[in-house]
Design goal:
With about 260 residues, the protein is of the alpha+beta class. The strands form three sheets. It has a five-stranded mixed beta sheet, with helices on one face. A three-stranded antiparallel beta sheet has the order 1-5-6. Strand 10, helix 7 and strand 11 form a beta-alpha-beta unit. Helix 6 packs across helix 7. The longest helix is centred in the middle third of the chain and has 26 residues. The radius of gyration is 33 Å and the shape is elongated. About 15% of the residues are buried.
């Protein structure tokens, strides 16, 4: 092990050398007993023995910032140990970190490519260097599908607990000329809190005729097993979606504007 040489090393805050510089004496004074250590150590032009003595005998009583920095090569022992392993993906610690990370990505609408962003990766390393972020492939093929299934079970349980459900839907075209249709369910839960849950946002490549939209919305509602449990329907007044919802189920239809 190597340690910063005198006069830079912090060991000299606690040690003094004898006249011929062959022995150093620890002058650490215990704050409770007021006793001085006075332990003598051989001095051979480096401070490793003194640093080890402080870590072994007085570390609990000395602030971290006042301890000498013991190094192996260019890394401190603490840093070298911290970087010597990563959390195993099957460990509870890894799952405890991965779950909120996945929630952050999904609930803030981040692109999955964020896991390849070097700045994002570096930031996570500063939080906990032993946590290695999963690959984009694992997120898209394993983590996100599992999250969706878990979310779906919870939502279906909530929907089964409420009697009245209301549907809003809309279709639009992106800047990349891709067509989408979305559906959101609104209800009041058992705690009398208004809930709005988007149950679908899917690409719909065909022309948005009223018949096509009706088929797509029916597929969405059947998937969530709520086709016959909708009290009212809401949308804008575009002719295609208006005719679609008027024909879809014998329920109240309310145009938004």
């Amino acid at each position: 092990m190597l340690i910063n040489n005198f006069p830079e090393s912090k060991v000299w805050n606690y040690f003094v050398k004898n006249n011929d510089s062959t022995i150093t004496t620890c002058k650490y004074k215990d704050a409770l007993t007021n006793e001085t250590c006075n332990n003598d150590l051989k001095y051979n032009k480096n401070t490793s023995l003194m640093a080890n003595h402080l870590y072994s005998n007085h570390r609990s009583n000395i602030k971290e910032s006042k301890l000498p920095s013991i190094t192996t090569g260019h890394l401190s022992i603490k840093a070298a140990f911290a970087n010597s392993y990563s959390y195993c993906p099957s460990s509870q610690k890894y799952r405890d970190l991965e779950d909120p990370m996945c929630n952050f990505i999904l609930q803030t609408g981040q692109l999955l490519s964020i896991v390849d962003n070097k700045h994002f990766f570096k930031m996570l390393g500063l939080f906990d260097s032993k946590y290695k972020l999963s690959t984009r492939q694992r997120f898209s093929c394993e983590i996100v599908p599992l999250k969706f299934e878990s979310f779906k079970i919870k939502v279906m349980h909530l929907l089964n607990e409420t009697e009245f459900r209301h549907l809003t839907t809309d279709g639009w075209t992106s800047q990349a000329s891709l067509s989408y249709i979305g559906a959101t369910i609104h209800f009041v839960d058992q705690n009398f809190c208004l809930k709005s849950i988007r149950i679908s946002l899917k690409q719909s490549p065909n022309a948005h005729t009223s018949l096509y939209l009706k088929e797509q919305i029916e597929l969405i509602l059947n998937k969530w097993k709520i086709n016959d449990k909708i009290l009212s329907k809401f949308s804008d007044t575009a002719a295609n979606i208006k005719h679609c919802l008027e024909d879809l189920m014998n329920k109240l239809y309310i145009p938004c504007f």
